[in-house]
Every structure is written in C-alpha cells, then in structure tokens.
Write a structure and sequence with these properties.
The complex is a heterodimer of chains A (77) and B (508).
Chain A (H helix, E strand, L loop, with lengths): L2 H13 L19 H15 L16 H11 L1
Chain B lengths: L2 H11 L4 E5 L2 E4 H17 L8 E5 L3 H12 L4 E5 L4 H11 L3 E4 L11 E3 L1 H8 L18 E7 L7 E6 H14 L7 E4 L7 H11 L3 E4 L2 H4 L2 H10 L4 E4 L1 H7 L15 E4 L6 H10 L4 E6 L9 E4 L2 H6 L7 E2 L4 E6 L7 E6 L6 E2 L3 H7 E3 L3 E11 L5 E6 L3 E4 L2 E4 H10 L3 E10 L5 E10 L16 H11 L11 E4 L13 H8 L1
Parallel strand pairs in B: 1-10, 3-4, 3-5, 5-6, 9-10, 11-12, 12-13, 25-26
Antiparallel strand pairs in B: 1-2, 7-8, 8-18, 13-14, 14-15, 16-17, 17-20, 19-20, 20-21, 22-23, 24-25
Helix pairs in contact in B: 1-2, 2-3
C-alpha cells in the first residue's frame, strides 16, 4: 500500500468514514475526530510510518484533511 | 475527626503552605481558610434552610475550593456544576435538587426563579471581607449529612444527583491515605473538572495531607501545544487521571522518568485501564507505582484497587480492577444460568444514601438496612483470592474517556431534536473492547430545514456540524456522538422497536 492508501485506511479505522472521495474534507469539523481520536491518529501514523511527530508543535491546521496528513507524513519521512 | 475540621486545623497551623497552584498562580491554606470563612459568614446571613444544597458553578480555579469549604462549614452540601454545562442542564439540576443558593465562581448562569445567586464579582468582594465567622462544630456538615452531590447521567434525560455524606467521604479518604503509600504534603495533579467525582480522588486526600494541587485546566488540555507545555512545567509527585488522559500525555516522548523523576505514583479511575497503556507507562516510568482503581460514584469514587506491577502485566491481558477496600463488602451476584460472571454488589460505609429527591430510582438500586448496599450494574468475576475482574455492563450504560453515559439519555436528546425523525446511539469499541466513540444512526425528518442540505452518499459533515450545534444547547458535549450516519429508515425489531443489536453489529 502507498502512503495515500495507508492514511485513508487509518482514517477509516478511527472514524469509520471513507475519505477517498473527499480528500480535502475537514476531519475535525463536526467533531468526527475529537482530541482522543487525534491521539489515536498520531499513534497510528507513528506506528505505520515510523515517523516522529513533533507533538509539542502540533497544529491542527496542518493535519485537518486526508491530503494534509499525506503531505505531513511525506515531509516527515 | 471531622474532615472539615482537620483541613481547617492544618490551615491554622500552616497558613503559608501552598494548597493550589493554577498554572503558576499560587494560593495558601491560610487564604483558603480566610476566604472560605468570609464566604461562610455571608451564607449564614442568607438564612437558608438547614442542609439545603448549594450549587457551585465554575471551572477549575482556586475559588471553587473556597466555595466548597464555605458550603460544608455552614452545614450545606455543595453541587459542583461545570461552567461548560448547557443552561438546560443547570435548570434541570435546580429543579431536581431544589437548592436555595447558587455560588457563581466563574462565568454567567441563566436567571432561575427562587434561586439566590452570589455572582462572581460579588464573590470576589466577599473574599476579602474580614469575617466574624467563628468555626462552629455544631454547624458544619458531619456524620450522615450530605457533603457533596454529583449529578450523573440518567436514562430518561433527567440526571440523578448522587448524595455523598461526610462519613462516605471519610471512608474513602481513610483508604486513600492508608493504602497507596502517599507521603505528607504531596504535590498532586488536579486535572479533572469538579463536576466529575474522579476529582475527589485528588482533592480531599491532598487537603488532608496538607499537600499542593497542581491544576491542569481543561482549556489547556484541549490543545496539544499548550497541554505539552503545561505538562513539562508540572512538578507533581502523584498523578490522578483517567486512562484516556495519560494516553494523551504519553504522546510526548519527554513525558518520562528522566524528565519527571519526582513523579512516582499514578492512580487511575473512571474507565478501564488497558494493558497497552499500563505497559507503555511502566516503560516510561519503570520505578513508579501504578494503581488501577474502580468504583461507581454511588460508592464514593472508588472501592477496589490493585498495583499494576510487571508480574500483573505478565499474568493478565485484561487488567484486574483489584481488591475491595477493607471496610467494604463486595460480592458477585451470579445469574443462575451463568458460569462465574455476575453483577458486582457493594455494601459498606462509603455507599451513598441515594439520589436526591428521587426515591423511585434510589429504591431500584440501593438497600438501606444496617449498612447500605448498592447494585452497581457492572459485571465482574471474582478469583479465589478475592481479586475482581471487570466484565462489562448489564445495561446500556457506558464509560467513555472516564465519562459515564446512559445511551438511553443520548437517544432521548437525539429524538427531541426537530430535525431528527428517529435516532439511536451505539458505542464503537477498539480491539480491547474499550469504548472509544459513539455513533449515531439518524433518520432525518424529511420536512426539517436541515434535510435540504442532505447529500445522498456524501459525508454530510456540514449537516452533522449544524446538528451537533443544535444538540449542544441541551446536552453535555461529552454525550454527543462523534459520528453521525444517515439512514432512510432504521432497522426495526419484531415488536416495533429500533433494532439496536443489529446496528451495534454493524458499528463493529
């Protein structure tokens, strides 16, 4: 699986929602991803990609859609 | 000795000791004594009915403690209500508990008929009055009198007010002070809002040991950046939180024993502590003592405990909730057709007298003979040596991130909304069986204004957003489901009810 598929898979696992047709949809809007789900999301990303998310500089804006997460993951790899 | 008197005595002897540290802003035991006496004197002037409860409304500031102490010093139980509560809920609590006074520590509340209010600006002025209040042994809350009332989720949308007496609380704090290796004058994390009884686990043991509460207010914990900034500045020795909250803290790699050598005790309650989280914590803090505890609000915070050692981690995949505290008798009420799983029943001095002004609900789950008995609705198993394992719920109550939620209450509020024709909420669990979120299956009302925004096969996030905004006017935010799924019709059982079990299977 490529980065796209893995990210979509993780998002689907956490939210039960398929974002493949709405890669720019705001995952935080409507509280679908709340703070606890954000914790899960970051843990999964660290786990699956072996990246280290600089958590003390975490900014929701940079992680708010499938596309943004993919960009972030690629920049951290 | 009476708990209030004990705290007051420590304050008299150690007025300069720090009791509260709110992001660097500190207050002393002397201030707690002086301010609460001044407020107590004012309460006495109001001529309230003896023992009528007082609502204390606010956030997590030092003044909350002042208001709690002033209430119990004058013989009144306090009802902590979080400032994030919707107005509807405050009105409901007032209708049920029939208080005569509300102390508004922080924020603005709706005007309610026949309710006296000490507003926050007035409160600030009273604090500094030199009071003639004389500590009166005969007036403070004592024995079986109610000390605090915590409101919890009720199935019909009416919350239930659990009344905890002075002696209930004393049974709890005696245990806290004897069984967890706490030292004199500890520095303890205070992260939980006061409307949630886990806060009692940090508040009263700390006050009775002359310690310092270091506060991590909700505003700081909602944003990762400020959360980790605050975490790095904490110097607590004792950590009290839900397992969910420590999971968040563990995201930061600097949260470890090298950076926080003073942090040697962790105490968890409010939801299941998973093996994952406990072992990760043990890796980060190999020398710390990690305690898992369990208990319903009705039995005063917690009644079982166990230290999670490496050998316990090696022995159990699902961690045990521990052994009953010494003064409490607990047993498993087995159903005839069941192997060894049954309802956990509790009897002892920390069992509540029941729900305020709600004899029907009280009778359903409590028995008050020589000692009080409470049927928890929790399922468990008992090992030969008395160790208790948790096995879920017998009804539709869930624990999520430490919050206790009746799914029927969630459904009640969903169905009240004019945009919704029918709806039902189901829990979503992770691989450990822990509830991680709520999912609402919604059949929209075809004539509602929100229905126009509905997109077939779309994510409908904007629609959900608007719906949640509406719901937040009446429901506590933690009860609002994270995910909404829109269906043309909900599946129905043979006898015409929504088929929750079918939907729960789908949610998995």
């Amino acid at each position: 699986m490529n980065v796209n598929e893995i990210v979509l898979d993780i998002l689907n696992g956490i939210t039960g929602t398929d974002f493949s047709k709405d890669m720019d949809a705001d995952i935080f809007m409507s509280g679908l991803v709340d703070s606890m789900a954000t914790v899960e999301l970051l843990l999964e990303l660290q786990d699956k990609f072996g990246i280290d998310v600089p958590i003390s500089e975490f900014n929701r804006e940079d992680w708010k859609s499938a596309n943004k997460i993919i960009q972030k993951v690629e920049s951290l790899q | 000795m009476n708990l209030i008197k004990q705290i007051d005595q420590f304050a008299t002897e150690n007025p300069a000791a720090i009791v509260y540290n709110y992001l660097g802003e500190t207050n002393t035991y002397g201030e707690l004594q002086q301010y609460s006496n001044a407020l107590a004197a004012r309460i006495q002037q109001l001529d309230l009915q003896p023992e009528s409860p007082i609502i204390v409304y606010g956030g997590q500031t030092f003044e909350m403690l002042v208001a709690f102490m002033a209430s119990v010093k004058t013989g009144h139980a306090y009802i902590p209500v979080d400032k994030h509560s919707p107005n509807e809920r405050i009105k409901l609590i007032t209708e049920i508990a029939q208080p005569e006074l509300m102390i508004e520590v922080d924020g603005n509340t709706p005007a309610i008929e026949n309710l006296k209010v000490i507003h926050s600006d007035e409160f600030q002025a009273i604090k500094h009055e030199t009071s003639s209040f004389e500590f009166d042994d005969n007036q403070m809350v004592t024995g079986d009198q109610t000390f605090y009332i915590i409101f919890t989720s009720g199935t019909t949308g009416n919350p239930k007010g659990v009344q905890i007496s002075h002696d209930n609380l004393k049974s709890f704090t005696d245990w806290m002070l004897s069984d967890f290796g706490l030292q004199a004058q500890p520095k303890v994390l205070a992260q939980t809002p006061y409307s949630f009884d886990l806060s009692v686990m940090d508040l009263y043991p700390t006050l009775l040991l002359g310690g310092e509460l270091q506060v991590l207010p909700r505003e700081q914990t909602e944003d990762f950046k400020s959360l980790f900034q605050c975490l790095s500045e904490l110097t607590v020795e004792v950590w009290v939180s839900t397992p969910s909250f420590i999971e968040m803290a563990l995201l930061d790699r600097n949260f470890n024993q090298q950076v926080h050598p003073e942090l040697t005790t962790f105490m968890f309650c409010g939801e299941e502590l998973t093996h994952d989280v406990a072992s990760k914590l043990h890796e980060r803090f190999p020398d710390a003592h990690i305690f898992n505890t369990y208990g319903p609000t009705e039995a005063t915070v917690a009644v079982t405990s166990i230290e999670i050692t490496p050998s316990i981690l090696a022995m159990y995949d699902r961690l045990p909730i521990g052994y009953f505290k010494n003064d409490t008798l607990g047993w498993i009420e087995l159903a005839s057709d069941n192997d060894n799983t049954g309802e956990i029943v509790l009897s002892g001095p920390s069992i509540s007298k029941g729900y305020i002004n709600n004899p029907a609900k009280t009778e359903q789950v409590f028995k008050h003979d020589q000692t009080a008995t409470y049927h928890t609705g929790d399922l468990g198993q008992r090992k030969n040596d008395g160790l208790i394992l948790y096995a879920g719920r017998k009804d539709f109550q869930i624990k999520m991130h430490g919050y206790r939620i009746e799914l029927e209450e969630v459904n009640h509020y969903l169905n009240l909304n004019e945009n919704i024709s029918r709806a039902v909420a189901v829990p979503v669990t992770d691989k450990n069986g822990k509830v991680v979120s709520l999912l609402a299956y919604v059949q929209l009302d075809l004539t509602s204004y929100l229905y126009h925004d509905f997109e077939v096969d779309g994510l409908n996030l904007k629609l959900t957003d608007e719906l949640k905004f509406e719901l937040a006017k009446k429901m506590m935010s933690y009860m609002i489901p994270q995910k909404f799924v829109y269906l043309d019709t909900l599946p129905i059982t043979m006898n015409g009810k929504i088929d929750i079990k079918a939907l729960m299977r789908e949610a998995k």
